[in-house]
Amino acid sequence: MAALKPSRTELPLQYFLENEYQSLIEIFHWVANLAGSVYTDTTCVVPPEAAYSSVLVSRTHQLSQEFLLNFKRSSLDLGLPLGISGYFGFPARSSLALRQLSEQEDHDNPEQVIKLPPYQNVNASLGVTIRARRSLRQFSGKTMPLQALSTILFYGNGVTGDMAMISEEDDPQWPQYSLGAPEVAHTRAASSGGGLNPISLYLVLQNVETLEDGIYIYLPFEHSLKKVMTFNQQKRKEHLALGLSWGTNVEAAKVNLAIYYVYTVYENSRKYGDMGLIFAVLEAGEIAANIHLVCTATKLASSDMGGWDKVQTERFLGIDGLSKQLVHTTVIGMP
Length: 335
Ligand SMILES: Cc1cc2nc3c(=O)[nH]c(=O)nc-3n(C[C@H](O)[C@H](O)[C@H](O)COP(=O)(O)O)c2cc1C
Prior knowledge:
The chain is of the alpha+beta class. The protein is about 35% helix and about 15% strand. Flavin mononucleotide binds near residues 134, 249 and 304.
């Protein structure tokens, strides 16, 4: 049987404007989430249709979402418990020690390691700071004091203290013996699944007091920077070109500090399996939150950036995009 053809009804413009337009525009506002942020003009907020409309040009078509939302499909999936069971007792301590040892190896190249000055003791009220925090992307381009960099990195993901790994009490959770001294773990400013800290902060510095512009890595145990390379003309050009993908509202040349959160996959996936990636992304967020609060408290401008070009930026930073993955970006500058 032939399908019935729908009859067409004429909709005069005046009628449309008086009767339909208002409710349609309300739906549009809701869909486009315009009330979500005062920065919608500068933030990529898209209506849900975009998720479908990009299918034809997308190479991954939301594979990442599919993975992230289905990493544990049933209670029979034993990957996580098995991974964790290998971490009881000594292995946990040895993995923490390994992290520190890798930094000590960096120290074997003293010309590449720059000690940071002591951080500023920030004692602003937490409530006031949280209320005052805003993403700010307008930078003056003035020189950033070295102590400001030290303060951001320390409160972002620095080593804040020591924790004894040997219990003198009769606690079965903790070992009573040691194969070496000292048996302490270093506590960090941001929390991390299993204390494995798979996120490293790669920094692109421009116009920071006494430091050459270039790429550095933060070494938390030493509260130092490891110099990866100083900028030549070509490298600076590449950095500014990558800055274009952040959006037109950010002037890359005035960003004193671009923080790239780099996930070293094996640091935590050997324990957490697929869940390692999710932990890493969460942990990058926790570090970023610390950083924004300390920027607010010390009157620096900071904003997260979501638009970075993953492959190009990884190449620029010199990471392989396999065992080391870029997962987040924050830019900071003088107000
Ligand atoms: C993961 C993430 C990505 C973001 N990406 C961008 C960006 O690409 N460009 C930008 O201007 N702001 C970006 N922002 C900042 C948001 O626009 C901002 O947080 C939001 O508008 C709310 O404003 P507020 O941070 O001042 O509260 C991003 C924030 C997050 C958490």
